[in-house]
Amino acid sequence: MNKAQLTFGLKYWRLAIHLIFKTKHFGVNNLWWAQQPSAIGWHWYEICWGILTIMPIWRNYQSLRVRSCLGWMPQADCEALGYDKVVHRDL
């Protein structure tokens, strides 16, 4: 992990948790009491199952890297994090 990844992770830790664990409220608007939860959010038992089996969580992390280079963040940030090289290697 380089300095850019650590800085970005500290700045956007809520969004990372939302995308990796597919929470219903944590990344949408960062409010637990929001009226409209995320459409991709998992129920608590799905999150627990993903943690126990590891593979769904790993796939969500890979998806986070791919989506970051498809316009979910500025291209300069994607390149600074090194995701552009990783994504091309994984595909």
Report on the structure:
By secondary structure, the chain is mainly α. The chain contains six helices and no strands.
Q: What's the assembly state of these chains?
A: single chain
Amino-to-carboxy terminus distance: 21 Å
**Cα gyration radius (Å):** 14 Å
Uncertain spans, ≥5 residues at pLDDT below 50? none
Q: Helix coverage percent of residues?
A: 55-70%
Structural class: mainly alpha
The averaged pLDDT comes out at 75
Approximate strand percentage: under 5%
How many β-strand runs?
0
Sheet with the most strands, sense and barrel status: none
**Number of helical stretches of at least 4 residues:** 6
- Give the overall shape, derived from the CA principal axes: globular
User: What string, H for helix and E for strand, traces the elements in order?
Assistant: HHHHHH
Topology:
Elements lengths: L2 H9 L1 H9 L22 H10 L1 H18 L2 H7 L1 H8 L1
Keywords, please?
about 90 residues
Short characterization:
With 91 residues, the chain is mainly alpha-helical.
